[in-house]
Specification:
- The structure is a single chain.
- By secondary structure, this protein is an alpha/beta fold.
- It folds into three domains: 266 residues, Rossmann fold; 121 residues, no CATH class; 62 residues, no CATH class.
- It contains 16 helices and 15 strands.
- The strands form five sheets. Strands 4-3-9-10 form a four-stranded parallel beta sheet, with helices on both faces.
- It binds one RNA strand through helix 1, helix 5, helix 7, strand 12 and helix 10.
RNA sequence: GGCCACGUGGCGGAGUGGUUACGCAACGGUCUGCAAAACCGUGUACCCCGGUUCAAUUCCGGGCGUGGCCUCCA
């Protein structure tokens, strides 16, 4: 079964061919660590985790190298550090901020069921490689020094702009390019710049005496090079990174190594919206992963729910994050968890695999999961029916659909055997005082007694009374359960 | 202003040049003392206008709408 991936550069879905099947290499742009990661940050992490898992299955876990960087040098970090630790020297304050944020990020991402990448290099630990690249670019005439800055000369690369499909002229037409007097061309971008006093600083390349710090784009070129080589298989990130970040990465890497391509597949996930609108702090609809986990609108959601909700939309489509999208995901996971039957070595159904191989068509794969759920239910009911007969045996029962369901969920990175389907009910209880809870239990007991006496009026009166308190009853074979109406 | 993506039934969301996506909700039924839950069943939708075609939601062009990028925001 061929794996097909959509490549932003060529704008087509192509069969994926690894440069080296014994070492498939993927690079994904990671977080800038200055604050809690928001749910928008979660999307590429989840999407490329799914791809990582798929590649591992296709090529073998030990034959895939996945690199996701940590950007720990950035103006936003500096600003945050100065704000949070005004009494510390800036560099120490920065270390505090990046250390703390990095840990938060990893906690959150683990809760979303994401595997650790093979390498998670930090920008500040690879300044040497960045300098090396810059030296090469200056030597090759693709970069120049101006007032202690090193700038990439866009004009030196004839096919600059291919990824974002912008011609050089168009970029000027846009006209919102930062103009600095020392730039040869307004489109040129910074590879290295001098540090202000107190800021993080490293020895500069290209004979510059003043210590400086790297521009944003160079770190990814450097770390991808170090861990994956001059060219590699897949480079991923959010669609907003296409320009200028990825365009500039291509320019740096290809010109430094004289290669026709930086990576064979450029993959970009679509943006996230919240209730149909752009998520922004100013709009007041900003949601962090941490909030979601610990209480968003009075509800704490398991990471698997956000993960599944996101995978219900194809990764290139915009994902609209809503309360309803979480509820739908939770409903699906709850019912999946009751029927899925994890078995070592079980494989997902063919239709599921086809969908996943078709540019990670997770919505189609999930539709197949629903079909397997249906088949699992039928199997389960048939089994219950047989077990109710004397002398029934368990043997020869068909669990294949339930096994394929669990295996499919596993492909999506959802460990269904660890999924706690009672979490909604527990949450309902958590908001209820012990006194109220015992009152509810008393009323339910009273109703049960009334029902055994067939005093329907009284039992219905009690049910109404509970309903007024917001308590909804569910009668099952094994007794009555209840939950708080939402 | 430039570049790009998207626009499918009440909602979410796949897909296809002519045949059922799927899920949620809704509706009908079974079950239940009655409900709820559970189970079974039902849905003919593809922004507008042209064009290509025997046939377009699907291809092409235009329009409208939404969103993204053009500013070191995933």
């Amino acid at each position: 079964m061929d794996l097909k991936l959509y490549d932003t550069l060529t704008r087509e879905k192509r069969v994926f061919r690894a440069l080296d099947p014994s070492n498939v290499r993927m690079y994904v742009c990671g977080p800038t660590v200055y604050d809690f990661a928001h749910i928008g940050n979660a999307r590429p992490v989840i999407v490329f985790d799914v791809l990582f898992r798929l590649l591992q299955r296709v090529y073998g876990a030990e034959h895939v190298t996945y690199v996701r960087n940590v950007t720990d040098v950035d103006d936003k970090i500096n600003a945050r550090a100065a704000e949070e630790y005004p009494d510390l020297p800036l560099n120490e304050a920065i270390r505090e901020v990046t250390k703390k944020t990095d840990k938060q990020f990893h906690d959150d991402v683990a809760a979303l069921g994401c595997l650790s990448p093979t390498h998670e290099p930090r920008a500040t630990e690879h300044v040497g490689e960045m300098r090396e690249l810059i030296e090469r670019l200056v030597k090759s005439g693709n970069a120049y020094v101006a007032e202690d800055n090193v700038l990439f000369s866009v004009a030196s690369m004839p096919d600059y702009g291919r990824l974002s499909h912008r011609s050089l002229d168009e970029m000027i037409a846009g006209a919102r390019v930062e103009v600095a007097p020392y730039k040869h061309d307004p489109r040129d971008f910074v590879l290295w710049k001098p540090s202000k006093p107190g800021e993080p600083a490293w020895p500069s390349p290209a004979g510059i005496k003043t210590p400086g710090r790297p521009g944003w784009h160079i770190e990814c070129s450097a770390m991808a090079w170090k861990f994956l080589g001059e060219t590699f298989d897949i480079h991923g990130g959010g669609i907003d990174l296409v320009f200028p970040h990825h365009e500039n990465e291509i320019a740096q890497s290809r010109c430094a190594f004289r290669t026709p391509v930086m990576t064979n597949y450029w993959m970009h996930n679509g943006f996230l919206q919240v209730e149909g609108e752009k998520m922004a702090k100013s709009a007041g609809n900003f949601v962090t992963i941490r909030e979601l986990r610990t209480g968003w609108r009075d509800f704490s959601w398991p990471g698997d729910v956000l993960r599944f909700a996101m995978l219900s939309t194809h990764y290139r489509q915009p994902f609209d994050f809503t309360h309803f999208s979480l509820e739908q995901a939770a409903v699906a996971l709850n019912v999946f968890s009751t029927f899925a039957y994890p078995t070592a070595g079980a494989k997902p159904s063919n239709e599921f695999l086809e969908a996943m191989h078709d540019d990670l068509n997770t919505p189609r794969a999930i539709a197949e999961l629903h079909r397997l759920l249906k088949a699992s239910k039928e199997g389960a009911f048939e089994l219950t029916d047989r077990m109710s007969r004397p002398g029934a045996m368990l043997i020869d029962s068909d669990f294949s659909a339930a096994e394929q369901l669990a295996a499919g969920l596993d492909y999506l990175g959802i460990n269904i055997s660890n999924y706690d389907r009672d979490w909604t009910r527990k949450q309902s209880f958590s908001g209820v005082s012990p006194q109220l809870k015992s009152k509810i239990d008393d009323l339910i007991t009273a109703r049960a007694e009334a029902r055994t006496r067939k005093e329907w009026k009284e039992s219905d009166r009690i049910r109404d009374e509970l309903a007024k308190m917001g308590v909804v009853l569910k009668d099952t074979k094994d007794g009555t359960t209840w939950e708080i109406a939402r």
